[in-house]
Amino acid sequence: MKRVPAVFTILICILFSTGYATPLADTPQDTLKEKKNLAVNFVRLVNTAEMNYRHDEGRYGTFADLVKSSELQKVSARFPQFASVLQRINSQSESEPIAGLQFGLVLAGDGTKYKLSVREKQDKPGCGFAFFSDEIGLIFEGKVIDCPAQ
């Protein structure tokens, strides 16, 4: 009889330690963290795709160029951490390729430079997050003036 509770206790410990029985966090802060991670990984994916596109074409490309050349897919194949980002991309939308994230990509006329931004889409102007990058590849985080840091 004592074996059953001991086995049950061990099984519960294993389930919780592996995460199978752990409920998904549904606090607003966890959701915000997940959205921010998605946005940053999207910026990383686009930056890497832009570098590869420039290597192949001699210039940086528009989002449509990156989609048409399959550069986003190539990067995702080489770097598995981008696979979940790639699955969420709607390649038909240049301004919101990932639901809930507004995207902007501006190229210099000669294609030698680019600037990109990703920010949280909101129904009303508010204190959402934003990330910025360019051809150098550094990613900057910004916030609206007078809004608390998130």
Structure description:
It is a single chain. This protein is an alpha+beta fold and 150 residues long. The chain has one domain (26-143). It is 44% helix and 17% strand. The chain contains five helices and four strands, in the order αααααββββ. It has helices at 3-18, 28-57, 63-68, 71-78, 83-88; strands at residues 101-107, 114-120, 129-134, 139-143. Strands 1-2-3-4 form a four-stranded antiparallel β-sheet, covered by helices on one side. A hairpin with an 8-residue loop joins β2 and β3. The longest helix has 30 residues, at 28-57. It is globular. It starts with a helix and ends in a 7-residue tail after the last strand.
The percent range for strand residues is 15-25%
Mean pLDDT: 83
Number of strands: 4
Give the helix tally: 5
For the sheet with most strands, the description reads: 4 strands, antiparallel
Distance between the termini: 52 Å
Cα gyration radius (Å): 20 Å
Query: How much helix, percentage-wise, in residues?
Result: 40-55%
| Run of helices and strands | HHHHHEEEE
Count of domain modules: 1
**How do the strands of the widest beta sheet line up side by side?**
1-2-3-4
Shape assignment: globular
Write a compact overview of the structure shown.
With 150 residues, the chain is α+β, with helices and mostly antiparallel strands.
Key attributes of the depicted protein:
globular, four-stranded antiparallel beta sheet, 4 strands, single chain, 150 residues, alpha+beta
SSE blueprint and pairings:
Layout: H1 3-18, H2 28-57, H3 63-68, H4 71-78, H5 83-88, E1 101-107, E2 114-120, E3 129-134, E4 139-143
Antiparallel strand pairs: 1-2, 2-3, 3-4
Helix pairs in contact: 2-4
